[in-house]
Model the fold of this input.
Amino acid sequence: MSQELLHNWEKKSADRQKLYQQFLNKVPLQQVLKHQSALHDEAFDKVDCLQCANCCKGYSPRFKTPDIKRISRLLKLKESVFIETYLRVDEDGDYVARSLPCPFLGADNHCSIYENRPSDCSRFPYTDEDVLVKRAALTKKNSSFCPITYYVLERLMQTIPTR
Done:
């Protein structure tokens, strides 16, 4: 069932964006919290992020001040040099990667700063957090490029009836 669920997931996700919005607007948060940890783990068992890396190829995390300090230290760069070299300010006023794919993504889809990556990266795809429901627009967007988000949403919809 799970491999079938993931078959052609990009098209299915695109076709179901309105349905996801309706579900996320109606679903009780407590019901999601009850199931999402197990579904998050199940999704990570089914999907190998290193085969995908869509998040690193097409999107940038926010680099918050603690991330910048930590990564600058790791790279032995002054924070200002790190920012100038790798980051830009986006339309929301956040620091994001200057270029895509992420400059720290290797050809093998491994992250060269994995142990020190930005907190947005370590939390992504937020399928084990209440962000999944509380930030429905973000969840819908993530489901369009992240098979784990798609999988968790689909399984939640199978598991939790909404009226």
Remarks:
- The chain has a mean pLDDT of 95.
- The first strand starts at residue 87 and ends at 89.
